[in-house]
Amino acid sequence: MKLLSVDPGKHSGWAAWEVISGSPKLSKMGVTEDESHMLDLLVANLWDDFDQIVYEDYIIRPPKVNKGWGHEWNSAPALHIIGALELYARLHSIKLKSQPASILPVGCGYIGYSYRKGVHVPNNISAIAHGAYWLVKNKLAQPRGFSTVG
């Protein structure tokens, strides 16, 4: 089973996983330079064939519940990447699943990353945490079956 996990945004984090005999292995990971770079990776189909893509969902919230930050003058690159992932998944018959950002504390715990509320989790670590969370939730890995990260 092959999984691609993504933290979409201007600098998207991504992680490619292989699960062989119930053991998950992180085979590749990275952070894109910009939105265009992520789109280029999808268009060029540079990754292996995936069975599943999981990504961190992006929800536009009112500024009063989003630490005062609004979306005025923001091109919302995360939404563009999510749309591209949806199209990519459809074109290649890949299952697609979104997950809320709220799973990060648990996913970070699975990979041994010290999550601190209010402190930005690097995009590649977020992608790995989302992959680990999905693998555990779907009983393809044990919560402590991952190598320590960062």
Describe this structure in words.
It contains four helices and five strands. The mean pLDDT is 89. The chain is of the alpha/beta class. Strands 3-2-1-4-5 form a five-stranded mixed β-sheet. The chain has one domain: Nucleotidyltransferase, domain 5 (2-Layer Sandwich). The radius of gyration is 15 Å and the shape is globular.
Keywords:
150 residues, alpha/beta, Nucleotidyltransferase, domain 5, 4 helices, globular
Total individual domains? 1
Please state roughly what percent of the residues sit in beta strands, choosing from under 5%, 5-15%, 15-25%, 25-35%, 35-45% or over 45%.
15-25%
Helicity level: 25-40%
CATH architecture: 2-Layer Sandwich
Question: Element order, helices and strands?
Answer: EEEHEHEHH
Distance between the termini: 25 Å
Write down the Rg: 15 Å
- Low-pLDDT stretches are none
Total number of beta strands: 5
Task: Write down the overall geometry.
Answer: globular
The top-level CATH class is: Alpha Beta
Under CATH, the topology is which? Answer: Nucleotidyltransferase, domain 5
Instruction: Round the mean pLDDT to the nearest integer and report it.
Output: 89
Helical segment count = 4
Helix/strand structural class: alpha/beta
Briefly, what is this?
The protein is about 30% helix and about 20% strand. Strands 3-2-1-4-5 form a five-stranded mixed β-sheet.
Give the SSE map.
Elements: E1 2-7, E2 13-20, E3 23-31, H1 35-44, E4 52-56, H2 77-91, E5 95-99, H3 104-111, H4 123-137
Helix pairs in contact: 1-2, 3-4
